[in-house]
Design a protein that fits this description.
about 55% helix; mainly alpha; globular; about 120 residues
């Protein structure tokens, strides 16, 4: 099966990234290709690559705009009272928290769940 998630297809699916240079999009597509196995994903392979790419790109864009997100495990904080709390993550909940940090990651995580145990080798 041929991959159908190049920069053009990616931007057609996610027009919110249309202003991002194609070469930058391709970098994140390449990153996704490194961790996803076509044999595991089957007919969902191209879709999984697109959603994981969008997740990576959204996190990168947020980071470059100064938003570090909540992935680090900070559950709450206070400024003047100098109070901070941390979440205690298990590997499973940490993974879920990572993917829940973007709408694209949430969709990708739903696809992982639909594949069951096999998706552990994304």
């Amino acid at each position: 099966m041929a991959l159908t998630c190049g920069p053009t297809e990616f931007k057609a699916r996610f027009p919110e990234f249309s202003t991002i240079d194609d070469s930058r999009v391709q970098i994140f597509i390449d990153d996704s290709l490194l961790v996803l196995k076509e044999a595991t994903w089957g007919t969902l392979y191209s879709l999984a690559v697109c959603y994981l790419t969008a997740h990576y790109l959204a996190l990168s864009e947020a980071s470059s705009n100064g938003d570090s997100g909540s992935i680090a495990g900070i559950a709450s904080q206070a400024v003047d009272g100098t109070s901070i709390s941390f979440n205690s993550f298990s590997p499973t909940s940490e993974t879920k928290a990572y993917y829940n940090s973007t709408q694209y990651g949430q969709r990708f995580y739903m696809m992982i769940r639909s594949l069951g145990v096999m998706a552990a080798t994304v």
